[in-house]
Design goal:
Pfam families: PMT_2
Radius of gyration: 26 Å
Subcellular location: Cell membrane
Number of strands: 4
GO molecular function: pentosyltransferase activity
Strand content: under 5%
Distance between the termini: 78 Å
Number of helices: 23
Structural class: mainly alpha
Helix content: 55-70%
Membrane topology: Multi-pass membrane protein
Keywords: Cell membrane, Glycosyltransferase, Membrane, Transferase, Transmembrane, Transmembrane helix
């Protein structure tokens, strides 16, 4: 029996129409993303990128517990497209293409062109079902970059084929980079190990050599990154924020115990249709693919299973179950689903031929399933696309477009419009040398206003968390010193944030007392209370330009 599976038959007219329609929807959705507002993390990373472009250093001038590459990614988008909210969306789409296109090509090499297109489009639609704030995030970028690096290792392998050293080195290098996004991404080596171990074109000695290529590439990237950080003088601050803070503080804030985490995971899967039915379909695909008579399909299935388990493990490990944490699961879920649909079609087609005369009705079931999956997956991206089109038809302003995409209602805490208005208010009443402090998670305000935050703490989490550790008192002392050295002209209190709630910080009494003594509330813009310095020392304009 041949080890190569038969390809999908020539696409029917219905297949072609549906695939073309879905591809057009993906393109329209991509355009709609340029209207998306920032979420919390988008604003934080945009501010970080702006500071780095102005000559600041990661971790020394802007604190974050995540790796440095997302900061530089936002800085790159600003350098290429200007200081706005849509440039990073273009970068996000480019990263999506870097993952989806190689994955689609690898599946096409295994199962045929239509299967490859189906896999790529399905992954793109599931990705597009995410909220604006969960996109352009380090989790999704790491997941898609790894998908692009792993995809060439899924291709058909036969005895005598040349080694895949360059692809293995690429996979190792990308794993090294991803480890500097979040440390546990080092476990992405597991699906690579499965791919190496199941490569029939290589003997045991050659497989060991392949493993060394992966390890050396990953270690080489790691050493290079650490060396650059050491030369830039940020290595110590990086270790403190990325390793020490995450181990001592962030990990301890996650949901305790694996039992409750598994329960929360199951509840999330039940509440998110995309992830929920994606896991069910991928599970069915894994069962079908692992029993396929063709060795190449079984190999790709085993790699997909290991890949899926790793990415779900990352979600469990973080214990927050936010949508962005699920983005790395999308490529392997799409891969296993596609292999399952393709394998099911093959099995039913063989059965129909054996029964000769049943009319081939059963063989159409996988086709109907595939089309139904695309239609269901297209629902949320279609909603975003139609919202944007309706807003443009109505002549909506940029701020109204943001409200369309967040489902904003007057009085809710989800309006990006308020952040823009607060930034505009502050920019009109201060000079470029004046500082602005944000107490909350609205770093979009100083980013849009182009005003620096005193010190490196751009959100309050590291100052409020970590009670009982040596980090909290040291961070608080550093924060207060920065305020004393360069008092901000305005303090932006995000009273709509569930952690902040009111213009008071009882859990940080020293800062609370300093705030009450030196600042007075000047205006409220939706959920933001803007406090103005009551003393001299900043250049608050008395008659700002309108």
């Amino acid at each position: 029996m041949s080890s190569s599976p038969p390809r999908f038959a020539r696409a029917s007219l219905l297949q072609g129409v549906v695939v073309l329609g879905v591809l057009l929807l993906v393109v329209a959705w991509a355009g709609a993303t340029l209207q998306f507002p920032f979420g919390i993390d988008n604003g934080i990373h945009a501010y970080q990128g702006w500071v780095l472009r102005a000559g600041g250093r990661p971790y020394v001038d802007v604190f974050d517990s995540r790796g440095p590459f997302v900061m530089y990614g936002y800085g790159l988008a600003q350098a290429l497209f200007g200081q706005n909210t849509w440039g990073v969306r273009l970068l996000d789409l480019a990263v999506l293409a870097l993952g989806v296109v190689p994955l689609a090509r690898a599946v096409a090499a295994l199962e045929g062109r239509i299967a490859g297109v189906f896999c790529g489009v399905l992954a793109a639609l599931w990705w597009a079902s995410s909220s604006p704030g969960s996109l352009a995030q380090p989790d999704g970028w790491a997941g898609m970059l790894f998908a692009g690096a792993l995809a060439p290792l899924l291709r058909r392998r036969t005895a005598g084929d040349p080694p895949m050293r360059r692809w293995l080195a690429l996979a190792g290098g990308v794993i090294g980079l991803c480890t500097f996004s979040k440390p546990f991404y080092a476990a992405l080596i597991v699906p690579v190990l499965v791919a190496i171990g199941s490569d029939r074109a290589r003997d045991h000695k050659a497989r060991l050599s392949d493993l060394m290529a992966v390890a050396l590439a990953g270690l080489g990237v790691g050493v290079a990154v650490l060396g650059v950080m050491w030369l830039a003088g940020v290595l110590r601050a990086f270790v403190e924020a990325y390793l020490v803070f995450n181990v001592k503080v962030y990990a301890g804030e996650a949901q305790a115990g694996w039992g409750p985490r598994v329960g929360s995971l199951l509840r999330y899967v039940g509440s998110d249709p995309t992830i929920g039915y994606g896991i069910v379909l991928a599970g069915a695909g894994a069962w079908i693919g692992s029993r396929d008579p063709h060795a190449d399909v079984r190999r790709a299935t085993h790699v997909g299973i290991a890949w899926t388990l790793c990415t779900i493990g990352f979600v469990l490990l973080q214990g927050r179950f936010w949508r962005q944490h699920w983005l790395p699961t999308i490529p392997p879920l799409a891969l296993l689903t596609t292999l399952g649909v393709s394998g099911l079609r093959r099995r039913l087609a063989v059965g129909e031929r054996a029964r000769a005369g049943a009319g081939g009705i059963a063989a159409l079931l996988p086709l109907v399933l595939a089309l139904a999956l695309l239609v269901v997956a297209a629902r949320t991206p279609a909603i975003y696309t139609l919202r944007g089109a309706r807003a443009l038809r109505d002549g909506a302003t940029r701020e109204a477009l943001w409200d369309y995409h967040t489902g904003y209602r007057q009085g809710s805490a989800s309006s990006f419009r308020a952040e823009h208005e607060a930034a505009r208010y502050i920019a009109a009443r201060t000079s470029a040398q004046d500082g602005v402090l944000v107490w909350g998670y609205a770093a979009s305000v100083p980013y849009l206003a182009q005003r620096r935050i005193p010190g490196r703490f751009i959100y309050p989490y590291p100052l409020l968390a970590g009670a009982g550790t040596s980090l909290q008192p040291r961070f608080r002392a550093e924060f207060l010193h920065a305020l004393g050295q360069r008092p901000p002209c305005y303090v932006v209190f995000d009273v709509g944030d569930p952690v902040v709630r009111a213009v008071a910080v009882p859990q940080f009494p020293t800062f609370d007392a300093w705030l009450r003594a030196n600042y007075r509330e000047e205006v409220r813009i939706e959920r933001f209370a803007l406090l103005r310095a009551a003393t001299a020392g900043c250049h608050v304009l008395q008659h700002p330009a309108s």
